[in-house]
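User: What would this chain look like folded?
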Amino acid sequence: MTIACVAPSRRSAVSAAGRVAASLPNATVEAFSLSGYLAAARAPDRIVLCPAGISTAADLRFLDLAVERLLRPSPPRGLRAAIGGIRPHGDRPRRAQAQPRREPGKAAPGASALLLEGRVGPSRALAALAASGPRDWIVESARHVRIPARLHRRLAQAGIRWSALEPIEIVALYATPALARAHRKWKALLPAQTRVWIAAGRPA
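Assistant: Here's the prediction, encoded as structure tokens.
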């Protein structure tokens, strides 16, 4: 099993990865900044979120951004089956993680959706938006979506709902004691079953 430690910067990810590896002796642990993870074509799809621990406010901002960019629900079963019938190698089975409570509603069974295979950059996303097609967009992975935060917000305001054939799974949140105590401020961001590992010795 390979796990990605995803942090605000590569430096803080490397620092956290050493400690996370001690908790997962049978796993290979790789370190990524959030931007580096999104840019990596073959990054692990199981992650530990590792806020830097500089301040609780900064950690909350990181969690909000990470969830916005990384967590996408699996498409409804009917759409997955239809997609599996047209993709060259079929749809790879993947257990979907329960989504955070703020996740927008999924497409209803039998609803139409737009399948965006491969990389989705700003020009492709804008072209899809201008086409006024389905508002449910399915990508292969959240890592394939390479658009800036401002465009993400514009798409959300236009009613775009994302889902992914290969959802990213949060294994745990690696949090400072201060962030763990502030759980009321972030618990709605993460799936309900997310484990919390206390990062002893990190700045609070």
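Residues 101-110 have pLDDT under 50 and may be disordered. If you want, I can go into more detail on any region.
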